[in-house]
Amino acid sequence: MTDNKYKYVIVGAGLAGATAVENIRKLDPDVSILLIGREKHLPYHRPPLSKKLWAGKVTVGDIKIQAQDFYDANNIIVELNTEIAALDIPGKAVTSIANVDYEYEKLLIATGAVPRKLEIPGGNLSGVVYYRDLDDFIRLRQAAVVNSTAVVIGGGYIGPEIAASLHENGVDVTLVIRGKYPAKKILPKTVGFALSYKYTNRGIKILTDDEPVSIEKTDENYITATKNGAHLTSDIVVVGVGVLPDVPWAQKMGLEFDNGLLVNEFLQTSVPDIYAAGDIANYPDKTLGFRRRVEHWDNAFHQGITAGKNMAGANESYDYLPYFFSDFFDFGFEAVGEVDSRLETYTDWQEENVKGVIYYLKNNQVRGVMMVNIWSQVDAAREIIRKGGKITVGDLRGAIK
Ligand SMILES: Cc1cc2nc3c(=O)[nH]c(=O)nc-3n(C[C@H](O)[C@H](O)[C@H](O)COP(=O)(O)OP(=O)(O)OC[C@H]3O[C@@H](n4cnc5c(N)ncnc54)[C@H](O)[C@@H]3O)c2cc1C
């Protein structure tokens, strides 16, 4: 037994955790709430780390979800620099690596994801930046002086975003990607090649169908050797090759896990008083009809709301269909549903590869929609996906503008 007893304990002071505590407090004004975070920063938004912070559109101070005053005013205890390492399900307690126990009545696990590491010689060098946290931004921002050189590894979202941001800040960038073009998992071929052209046209070198096999640190810089025989010398190496759900401790303690913590429609794990939300949660998507784990801002935000409310007794089903967004230079988009380049696609351009809508189809039904440089139309896209039914190209032409 400990004196550290709270009605609600939230592990993971990121977007989902921060949103959950706000929503618990709205429904349950007097009870004790503890938000525990491994980082030294108050919860903040991550999307600006690879985009707006580099464009000088926002500052580090602007990306906080709430200031300390908010937590003080709402009597929410926030313990930063605290990593949870164990879970005692029968004893209803979590334990930090400093061996402090925290007892809960209801627990939310919102620990997000950690970058996948390169399993190659030099993959663990301390100077190699696996890009995820505010501290990674601070470190990279300091290193990214004008005319420095960077090797950016990974063709998903983070790699192309960071490559663009470094380039815009005067860094000479080489992007190493496994596929033939960036964002290959979501972009159809023609759009992907047009995006590649945009990058190379601006002066970013892209090594396609390639990947690093070793990274070496010399006195002066890094040398990245690739499978296809390149030896890239650079001041900076940044890696964005995907993320893994960050919850080894809870997984070991017996919560059901399969590519994330398995939750039901109320975001409860296999133990009803323990909830999970955000990047960590593998949930049943009601609209799409299958389970998935989503690694995007909007999902973490809305799951945080639902988990917080449900912990405080609301009993709401998570029926929301989250969207996601990204910016690759001026190729900005919002997308929703099954945005998978392996599906059949129909493109409805107002300006080819610049402005328009990409529909992702399965059995002549719209499963996903990406709106390129068309904003505030996510609800219209959701509606088309939800409606289901067979469609024709004629139905889609001009459907979203
Ligand atoms: C650079 C970057 C850019 C992004 N850009 C976009 C974008 O443009 N569009 C988009 O839709 N999404 C984007 N995302 C994804 C989006 O930010 C995430 O989906 C979202 O942050 C997930 O929120 P979360 O609360 O689940 O996890 P996180 O935000 O990762 O928060 C989890 C927190 O839990 C902490 N934690 C982990 N384990 C423990 C532990 N054992 N004890 C205590 N604390 C722990 C972590 O340190 C972290 O602070 C981006 C992500 C990154 C990294």
How many separate structural domains?
3
Low-pLDDT segments: none
CATH C-level class of the largest domain is Alpha Beta
Count all strands and give the number.
Answer: 25
Mean pLDDT across all amino acids: 96
Number of helices: 9
CATH topology of the largest domain: FAD/NAD(P)-binding domain
Q: How would you classify the helix and strand content by structural class?
A: alpha/beta
Quick description:
With about 400 residues, the protein is an alpha/beta fold. Helices cover about 20% and strands about 30% of the residues. Strand 13 and strand 14 form a beta hairpin.
Can you offer a commentary on this structure?
With 401 residues, the protein is α/β, with parallel strands linked by helices. It has 3 domains: 5-114 and 243-311, FAD/NAD(P)-binding domain (3-Layer(bba) Sandwich), CATH 3.50.50; 129-239, FAD/NAD(P)-binding domain, CATH 3.50.50; 330-396, FAD/NAD-linked reductase, C-terminal dimerisation domain (Enolase-like, domain 1). The chain has 9 helices and 25 strands. The strands form 6 sheets. Strands 1, 2, 3, 4, 5, 6 and 18 form a 7-stranded mixed sheet that branches. A 5-stranded parallel sheet has the order 8-15-9-10-11. A 5-stranded antiparallel sheet has the order 21-22-25-24-23. Bound molecules: flavin-adenine dinucleotide.
